[in-house]
Amino acid sequence: MSEKKDWLTGAGTNTKLCHIGHDPSSYHGFVNPPIVKASTVLFATAESMDPPQQKYTYGTRGTPTTDALCEAIDALEGSAGTIILPSGLAAITVPFLAFLSHGDHALVVDSVYDPARHFCDTMLKRLGVEVEYYDPTIGAGIEALIRPNTKLVHTESPGSNTLEMQDIRILTEIAHRHGALVSMDNTWATPLYFRPLDFGVDLSMQASTKYPAGHSDILMGTVSANAACWPTLKAAYGAMGLCGSAEDSYMVLRGLRTMAVRLAHHDRSAREIAQWLEARDDVASVLHPALPSFPGHALWKRDFKGASGLFSFVLAENDPTRFKLRAHAFLNALQIFGIGWSWGGYESLAVVANVGGRTIAKPPTTGPLIRLQIGLEDVVDLQADLERGFEAAAKV
């Protein structure tokens, strides 16, 4: 296995994805790791149980299947260790619980994933953690918000639904100077297009539900930590009795094999559609970091290796009382785009973006905000479907 790791170190992305996370020689040459389902694990003797003298001790502490996925994610993230959780939201909330205590202060980006905001405003508040939301474009200005009891700065770049870019390296430098940790929700880019730990982030989170799984049938989240944070994260994970399903781990590991190919297709198609939308009179603006017109484009171009299939646009409408009416007409006319939450799967989706809870990063006022997930369908068919939406909205 060590020889394999050596040659994988210098391999290309697709080659790595085809081979990380499993050594066929460990399982009689089978290409994919077996699904090992377990609760009880037997010990040979009572002495070997006290203290445990074998790698696997109980189902919640990992199996060969879940370990294979963790090893693969570590290879992608450059992390010291990874935990597997039952959802992307859990990948955010568990580190918050692991590293924040009563009396602590946490800075959370205002463009954060909305269910994470709900957790902060309810559970963390009840536990005596003060959460302060900050402008995603604050950059070096975040230093003025840091207090002696600030323990965590949470980032998400691009931001949820409105895609604001953050200068992650500056944020980590300032946070670390004051003894605070930095976490990042990196679901949009995945570690293929942005590796948070390379930019100083301590805890990299992603919803494996999205691009790693890739087929809209798995719920999972991962958190990858640097060496300093790994022991605390691992201990909290074990203390809460959390564990990833062997079947879901197997499916996500299988999804990783094609993730680079799929993500490249999502990227190309989304950029083409974003440019097409930007040229339309019935579109007020397009929120996509890869567009030169986007305010955060320079940061994206400097730090990211690519873009995913998720972006938003503003349907032109001057009267706020008609925003919902126009948006619903647009969505209801679509035939290929599904109306549903989540993203990262093979199919295209469209929803009215939820940005209602923000206090700083306010949503656009020039029309309703529509979020698109561009799937693996042909661009010409997706454009024709969006035309149906625009025609329906124009009749309202």
Automatic annotation (TrEMBL):
Entry's EC annotation: 4.4.1.8
Top-rank taxon: Bacteria
Required co-factors: pyridoxal 5'-phosphate
InterPro entries xref list: Cys/Met-Metab_PyrdxlP-dep_enz, Cys_b_lyase_bac, PyrdxlP-dep_Trfase, PyrdxlP-dep_Trfase_major, PyrdxlP-dep_Trfase_small
Name of the top EC class for this enzyme: lyase
Record PTM N6-(pyridoxal phosphate)lysine, positions in chain: 210
GO molecular function, one term: cysteine-S-conjugate beta-lyase activity
Keywords associated with the record: Lyase, Pyridoxal phosphate
Reaction equations catalysed: L,L-cystathionine + H2O = L-homocysteine + pyruvate + NH4(+)
GO terms, biological process: L-cysteine catabolic process to pyruvate; transsulfuration
NCBIfam families: cysta_beta_ly_B, PRK05967.1
Entry's family note: Belongs to the trans-sulfuration enzymes family.
Stated name of the protein: Cystathionine beta-lyase
Source organism per UniProt: Allorhizobium taibaishanense
